[in-house]
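**Backbone shape codes:**
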Amino acid sequence: MTTPRLVRTRSELADALGPARAGRTRAVVMTMGALHEGHLSLVRAARERADEVVVTIFVNPLQFGPAEDLDRYPRDLEGDLALLAGAGADLVFAPDVAQVYPDGDPVVRVSAGALGERLEGAHRPGHFDGVLTVVLKLLHLVRPDVALFGRKDAQQLMAVRRMVADLDVPVEVVGVETVRDDDGVALSSRNAYLDAEQRASARALNRALRAAQAAAGAGAPADEVRRAAADVLASEPGVVVDYVALVDDTATDVAADATGPAVLAVAARVGTTRLIDNVTLTLEGR
């Protein structure tokens, strides 16, 4: 197994990347560490698309609210590097906060606009501004041809794609399918917070998505598709729902008579842990 090279500073990163070479492509996978199979699937997908694969590991304080889990978010760089060995990464950039924000909290930030005020943004004000700010900085530092993101964070993927299009960032953004455990729960670093009883409750999120898929496949209109998912979550006493939404690619609720592709997105708290999940489906209407 090949262990990727680790760099911690901007200058080390620039030296490791070197000048652009004609005919060679570079991919980046951005993470906050505490890696799992979902992250590794992104790395493997990047390996298939590019000659050089860079993984970034940085817990970004800008995207955490004051009452969120920044301080206790799992960190295990040594374990992350062991998981990345043989997965296809060539280089790991794991900077500290001072490297990413050398002048302190940035005065100028990327705004996610209205897209960042819906769903996750409504529950986590400023979250997507923080996400887009660090993503843009890392794109500048790594200079990739392609950037890969998991579809589990559907609204994040929407926001990154819109930023890249609106600001003319020269990178291809690729979404990679969600990886799930055998019980259907989407892989997430925050799953480590769940005890056995909470883990059983968390399975309701995937059941809700499958109920929505079944309703859409049967030709149900948008409101019934959304209700099918909401009913499943409402029946699980260990789940406190933040939202169940059926949206388009701008995170806007679809019309009652909508047809075509849509995203059924859910967010809920299980114990003290907040989980999100989603599925893309096709509305056919009756």
